Amino acid sequence: MRLCSHLCCLMIFAGSFSIYADDRQLRAEKMLRQQLAIIVLVSDDERFIEHKKTLAAGTLTQKSLTAIELDIAQYWQDHQIPIRANTVQAEKDPFLRAMALEPQIEGFLQLQNRIRHLLWLSEQDWWQPISLEVLVRPGDKSQLIPVIVKRLWLLGDAKHTTSDSVILDDDVVIAIKRFQRRHGLTADGIIGPETVKWLNVSPQARARMLANNFVQRAEFMSQRSERFLVINIPAFEMELFNQGRVELASRVIVGKPYRPTPLLSSSISNVVINPSWRVPKKILYNDLLPQVRKDGHYINDRNFDVFDRQDKQVIRTAEQWSDLARGPFPYRFVQRPGINNTLGRYKFYFPNDHSVYLHDTVDPELFERSDRALSSGCIRVENVEGLANWMAAHLVKDKQTWVDRHRDRKRTQWFSLNSTLNVHLVYWTAWIDDANQVQFRNDIYQMNATNQLTAPASAQINDL
């Protein structure tokens, strides 16, 4: 009897252990599927598609499991993204091995949840194109309002989806504004072409954008120094990181689509206080000379000096300048420093082959626009005083000289920093913000071929 009892206990224990082991295996496979869902959206490597199929088919062997684990680990390593542990195969528990493979970066869990939700949405037949012929303003009626409300609810912008009202009422306007802010649009509550375009972007396309940009940003951040400045061009935003946290942020203005701000990395070593502006040829011919043709006083009114090819200043009457601007123009413009200078109070110089830099502006009202691709390539910084003060506090030893060089507003002063500040011009069109909200932005330079978002013909709206 005693032997039988022991055997029964052993059988029960063995059965419990088997169930426990199976549960660990299933949880491990789930974690691997979630990682592969992200990788497949980003990578065109057929191995990951096959791995995903193997996990879905339920025909996993120890050999195929090992191959999946090693390929996932290699993928993150190739992108210089740290994972929880590098000794994956030394662990016998499949669940612990799967955990060890997860990228050890902030926001990865939120990314997994968002991707999983978007991919689930993509499996439903809910994303038929929305077509509007006119703008729908707050208080207007449209038979498509219930469809739009449901879509906003599915994307997390509306609180409910039960209303059959065809009126763009206050609750719907709040949801529309929330959606518009998450897509970098003017939050006016009006359903217009850009809002419709983004409402029509499929969940699959959103998942792909989010995954691609997350991997790009994670790879970028893993290689950065402790202190750096990053300008995200499509977001029109600047952030200054110090010891892993954002110490300064600002809206910026970047280059127009036909005069794009380049992607590059450099370091700021000098600040120009009260800069003069040597007008580039392209800007001279495309922007300034048309103004001079209309009114020759433009040169004097905007405090420009004109020089010939021998660097001798040229003096002419307003009428003469207007006439000269109509033909060949062998001169260059330099705008004197002062309160009306186009570059404003500061110019932050960093070496590059594109002659771009950060600077102040005399048109601060432009920062209120949602689309701030307005410059000729340089970056205008709204919080330019904050950036200058941060540099003075952290990168300048001789504080008194810094102060002294600010006294004469009409005199250009170059100031060499005691330490450089790395600056990176990047291009991210999707991310998860600090409030756990997914942000999307237009591909303003059409750099992401697979993510180009264009409104279908049915989404074109007339402003009646």
From TrEMBL:
<dbReference type="InterPro" id="IPR005490">
    <property type="entry name" value="LD_TPept_cat_dom"/>
</dbReference>
<feature type="active site" description="Nucleophile">
    <location>
        <position position="378"/>
    </location>
</feature>
<dbReference type="InterPro" id="IPR052905">
    <property type="entry name" value="LD-transpeptidase_YkuD-like"/>
</dbReference>
<keyword id="KW-0133">Cell shape</keyword>
<feature type="domain" description="L,D-TPase catalytic">
    <location>
        <begin position="227"/>
        <end position="406"/>
    </location>
</feature>
<dbReference type="InterPro" id="IPR002477">
    <property type="entry name" value="Peptidoglycan-bd-like"/>
</dbReference>
<protein>
    <submittedName>
        <fullName>Peptidoglycan-binding protein</fullName>
    </submittedName>
</protein>
<dbReference type="InterPro" id="IPR036366">
    <property type="entry name" value="PGBDSf"/>
</dbReference>
<dbReference type="Pfam" id="PF03734">
    <property type="entry name" value="YkuD"/>
</dbReference>
<dbReference type="Pfam" id="PF01471">
    <property type="entry name" value="PG_binding_1"/>
</dbReference>
<keyword id="KW-0573">Peptidoglycan synthesis</keyword>
<keyword id="KW-0732">Signal</keyword>
<dbReference type="InterPro" id="IPR038063">
    <property type="entry name" value="Transpep_catalytic_dom"/>
</dbReference>
<dbReference type="InterPro" id="IPR036365">
    <property type="entry name" value="PGBD-like_sf"/>
</dbReference>
<comment type="similarity">
    <text>Belongs to the YkuD family.</text>
</comment>
<keyword id="KW-0961">Cell wall biogenesis/degradation</keyword>
<comment type="pathway">
    <text>Cell wall biogenesis; peptidoglycan biosynthesis.</text>
</comment>
<feature type="active site" description="Proton donor/acceptor">
    <location>
        <position position="359"/>
    </location>
</feature>
<keyword id="KW-0808">Transferase</keyword>
<feature type="signal peptide">
    <location>
        <begin position="1"/>
        <end position="21"/>
    </location>
</feature>
